[in-house]
Design brief:
It is a single chain. By secondary structure, the chain is an alpha/beta fold. It contains 15 helices and 12 strands. An 8-stranded mixed β-sheet has the order 1-2-6-5-7-8-9-10, with helices on both faces. A hairpin with a 5-residue loop joins strand 11 and strand 12. This is DUF1023 domain-containing protein.
Length: 562
C-alpha cells in the first residue's frame, strides 16, 4: 500500500538507519581523535624535551613541533564529525523509530477508513433504496444504520488523522536531524569554510529540491557565490539547481585539485586521465564528480558543451530539443568513457541529422553508481542505489531544462534495470519522455518493495522502446536468474521493439548504408558472452550498429527506423 502524508505530501516509507552502526562509527572516531591527541602530546614532548645536541636533534624537534601543530586541528575536526554523527544517531533513533513503528498502524487505519467508507455508502444506498411503502420501523432502522455508519467513518477518519499527525511530527524531527547532520558535515572544517559562508552552506545542503537550491543560489550575492565556488567547489558542482555552467566550472576546480594530489593508483589514475581528455578534447564537462567515492569513483559527463570567444561555457541546454542520458550496466565505470563518450558525441550528431530542422541534441554519459559485478547483478541492490542518484540528476534536468525538451534515458544491460526503477518507481514525475533499453538484463518486476511499496511500477506518460540482439544470451540469463528484475521491457504494455541484427539505415546525409548487427551483449566491443569472444564496433551503442541508429531516430523523432 503506497500512501502519502496529508500535510507534508511525502510518501509513507520506512526510514532506513543503522543505530548501532552510527554509534560504533562515532565511538571509533572519538577513539581516533583521542589517539591523535596522545600523539600530539608525545610530539610536543619531543619538540620541547628531546635531549641531545646537533642539527639532527634540532631537525627532529622542529619536525615534531610541526606535526603536533597539524594534529590539533585534525583531531578537532574528527571530534566534530563524531559529534555530528552522534547527534544524528540519537535523533534518528528517537524520531525514525517512532515513524517506522507507526507505518503498520497507518496502513491498517487507512484500510479501516476505506472499509468504513464502503459501509457508509452501502447504508446510504440501502436507505435511499427503500420503497415508498416501507414501514416507519424500516425507515428508522435504515436511518439508524446510516447514522451509525457515518459515526463509525468519522471515528476511523479521526484515528487515521491522529496517526498521520504523529507520523508527520516524527518525520519532521528526523528530517530536521538529517538536515542538521548534512549542514554539520558540510561545515566540518572550520578553517576551510569561512564563517560568512556557513549559513549559505547550511541552507544549500538542507534544500529539498532543485528549485529550492536555485532560489537560495539566486539569493546569494556575487561575492558569496564566488567564495562558495572557490572554497567548496565539490559541493557546488554536485548540487542540482545550481546553474549548469557554474557546476561545470566548480567540477573543473575539483578535478584540478584532485589531479594535483595524484597519483592514487589504478584504476583511478587512468580514469582521471581519460576525464581530462574528455573535457579538453571532446567538448565534455563534468555534470557530477565524486572521485573518491567507494568502491568506485562516480561521475557524469555532458557532451556537446561549447565556449564563447572569452572562453566562458555556453549553457548546453539552452535552445536544444533533446537531452539524452546514457546509463551503463554491469562492470561499467568512468574507465569506459572513451567508448561511451564517443557514443554520446555520435548520438548528438546522428540525432541532429535524423531530426527535423532545428533539432539540437545534448547527451550525458552517466556513471553515478556502484555498478554490479557477477555476484551482485542478480539482485536489486545496485539498481536501488543507482536509481536514487539517477533520480536526482533527472529532477535537476526537469528543473533546469525547458519543458519543451524531450528527455530520453538509454540503459544498457543492468543500466536499464536502474533507469526503469528510477523512472517507473518514482513518486513524482521526473520529466522523462522516453525510456530505451538495449540488451536489458531485465527491469523491475511490477513493484520493488523498498522503492514503491505495494504499488506497481508506473511508466505513465513515458514511451518505452527496447531491443535485444538474437544472440544476446547474457541479457536473457540476467533476466531469468534475477531476484527482482525478471521483466522483459519489451513485454511492458505499449512498449515498442526495435531490431539490432543488422541491415541498412540512413547515413548522416540521409542515404541508405549498411549497418552491422550486434552478435551478443556488448555495448561497444567485446563481452559478447560471459566467456567472451572479441568483437569490435558492433555493440548496441556502436555508431555503425543497427541498434545505435534506431536509438538516434527514437530520440530525434520518437519512432524506430522502418
Amino acid at each position: 500500500m503506497s500512501l502519502t502524508s496529508p500535510e507534508l505530501g511525502v510518501p509513507l516509507e520506512r526510514i532506513d538507519y543503522d543505530e548501532g552502526g552510527i554509534e560504533a562509527l562515532s565511538d571509533a572516531l572519538r577513539d581516533l581523535a583521542e589517539d591523535g591527541r596522545d600523539a600530539g602530546v608525545v610530539l610536543r614532548n619531543i619538540d620541547g624535551g628531546l635531549e641531545g645536541r646537533g642539527e639532527a636533534i634540532r631537525s627532529v624537534q622542529s619536525d615534531a613541533g610541526d606535526v603536533a601543530g597539524r594534529i590539533t586541528p585534525t583531531t578537532q575536526m574528527v571530534d566534530r564529525i563524531a559529534a555530528a554523527l552522534k547527534s544524528y544517531g540519537e535523533a534518528v533513533a528517537q524520531h525514525g523509530r517512532v515513524a517506522n513503528d507507526l507505518i503498520d498502524d497507518i496502513e491498517a487505519a487507512h484500510a479501516a477508513v476505506e472499509s468504513a467508507e464502503a459501509s457508509a455508502a452501502t447504508a446510504d444506498g440501502e436507505m435511499g433504496g427503500l420503497s415508498d411503502d416501507a414501514t416507519s420501523r424500516e425507515v428508522a432502522l435504515a436511518e439508524e444504520a446510516a447514522a451509525d455508519a457515518e459515526d463509525a467513518l468519522a471515528r476511523r477518519r479521526t484515528e487515521l488523522s491522529d496517526l498521520w499527525e504523529q507520523w508527520e511530527a516524527a518525520y519532521r524531527g528526523w528530517d530536521a536531524a538529517y538536515d542538521a547532520a548534512l549542514a554539520a558535515m558540510a561545515n566540518i572544517d572550520h578553517a576551510y569554510v569561512p564563517a560568512s559562508l556557513r549559513a549559505s552552506v547550511t541552507a544549500l545542503t538542507s534544500a529539498d529540491s532543485p528549485a529550492e537550491v536555485a532560489a537560495i543560489w539566486a539569493g546569494l550575492t556575487d561575492d558569496e557565490r564566488a567564495d562558495l565556488l572557490s572554497t567548496r567547489p565539490e559541493l557546488v558542482g554536485n548540487l542540482e539547481g545550481v546553474p549548469y555552467p557554474v557546476r561545470f566550472e566548480a567540477n573543473r576546480l575539483t578535478y584540478a585539485d584532485t589531479m594535483a594530489g595524484a597519483p592514487y593508483g589504478e584504476p583511478l589514475d587512468s580514469q582521471l586521465l581519460q576525464l581530462g581528455i574528455e573535457m579538453d578534447s571532446n567538448d565534455g564537462e563534468l555534470l557530477m564528480f565524486h572521485p573518491f567515492e567507494q568502491p568506485q569513483a562516480t561521475g557524469a559527463v555532458v557532451y556537446g558543451v561549447t565556449r564563447d570567444a572569452e572562453g566562458n561555457v555556453v549553457d548546453p541546454f539552452e535552445g536544444v530539443t533533446n537531452v539524452n542520458v546514457l546509463v551503463g550496466g554491469m562492470f561499467s565505470g568512468l574507465g569506459d568513457l572513451e567508448a561511451w563518450g564517443g557514443s554520446a558525441r555520435e548520438l548528438n550528431r546522428y540525432a541532429e541529422a535524423y531530426g527535423a530542422d532545428g533539432t539540437g541534441s545534448i547527451t550525458i554519459a552517466w556513471y553515478g553508481y556502484d555498478s554490479p559485478n557477477l555476484l551482485t547483478e542478480a539482485t536489486m541492490g545496485s539498481a536501488t542505489e543507482g536509481a536514487a542518484r539517477l533520480s536526482e540528476t533527472l529532477r535537476g534536468l526537469d528543473h533546469g531544462v525547458s519543458s519543451s525538451v524531450t528527455t530520453s534515458v538509454i540503459g544498457h544491460s543492468y543500466g536499464s534495470t536502474t533507469a526503469f526503477l528510477a523512472v517507473g518507481g518514482s513518486s513524482s514525475d521526473l520529466g522523462v519522455d522516453r525510456l530505451i533499453a538495449v540488451g536489458s538484463a531485465g527491469v523491475p518486476d511490477g513493484y520493488h518493495a523498498s522503492w514503491t511499496g505495494d504499488e506497481p511500477m508506473d511508466y505513465s506518460g513515458v514511451e518505452i522502446f527496447a531491443s535485444r540482439a538474437p544472440g544476446d544470451g547474457v541479457a536473457r540469463f540476467g533476466e531469468w536468474s534475477s531476484f527482482g528484475h525478471g521483466t522483459d521491457p519489451e513485454s511492458i504494455d505499449g512498449a515498442t521493439s526495435f531490431e539490432s541484427d543488422g541491415g541498412t539505415a540512413p547515413s548522416l546525409e540521409g542515404t541508405p548504408e549498411p549497418v552491422v548487427g550486434t552478435p551478443g551483449h556488448a555495448s561497444h566491443d567485446g563481452g559478447n558472452s560471459f566467456w567472451g569472444w572479441w568483437e569490435e564496433d558492433n555493440g548496441y551503442l556502436s555508431r555503425d550498429s543497427e541498434s545505435f541508429r534506431n536509438i538516434a531516430n527514437i530520440v530525434a523523432n520518437g519512432e524506430v527506423l522502418q
